[in-house]
Design brief:
Elements: H1 26-41, E1 46-48, E2 58-61, E3 68-79, E4 82-88, E5 91-100, E6 103-109, E7 115-121, H2 123-134
Antiparallel strand pairs: 1-2, 2-3, 3-6, 4-5, 6-7
């Protein structure tokens, strides 16, 4: 395992569409391992492959409940609304308000090529949306809402 360099938001690789993983092989497993190590070293809760310069549909997430590895993730269901501050390892020291679904359901493959379903609310829903957005070249600040437009409840 190795810690990889996290690409910053100015890097054009973060704006590109990632390709699906066609075969889970040793390179895929190494990528998953390195991404997890990199995420933990940076004190993040998620990391997508383009953030380490790889244009593959691979994501790792750990919001404190254990590592989740997603290969070719697809959001299949989302409901509700949850507005909160969001940051990104590729945009250090900054955050913005983003409106994300309250609940998200994702289908993907695990490192063994088995289909898995991951469901999440609040922080997990945010992480699932945030990381899968990276796979489509979308950064959180693209979806930011101005603070003056947020209604106090």
């Amino acid at each position: 395992m190795a810690t990889r360099e996290i690409r910053l938001s100015t890097d054009e690789v973060l704006r590109k569409l990632c390709k699906p993983v066609k075969e889970i092989n040793a390179n895929t497993i190494t990528l998953l391992d390195d991404m997890a190590e990199t995420m933990y070293a940076a004190n993040g809760v998620g990391l997508a492959a383009p953030q380490v310069g790889i244009l593959k549909r691979v994501v790792v997430i750990d919001i404190g409940d254990g590592l989740i590895e997603l290969i070719n993730p697809v959001v299949v269901e989302k409901t509700g609304s949850h507005i909160d501050y969001e940051g990104c390892l590729s945009v250090p020291g900054k955050s913005a308000l983003v409106d994300r679904p309250e609940y998200v359901k994702v289908e993907a493959l695990n490192r063994n090529g088995e289909k898995i379903v991951v469901e999440g609310e609040e922080l997990m829903a945010v992480a699932l949306c945030h990381e899968t957005d990276h796979l489509d070249g979308v950064l959180y600040f693209d979806k930011a809402i101005p603070e003056e437009e947020v209604e106090e409840v």
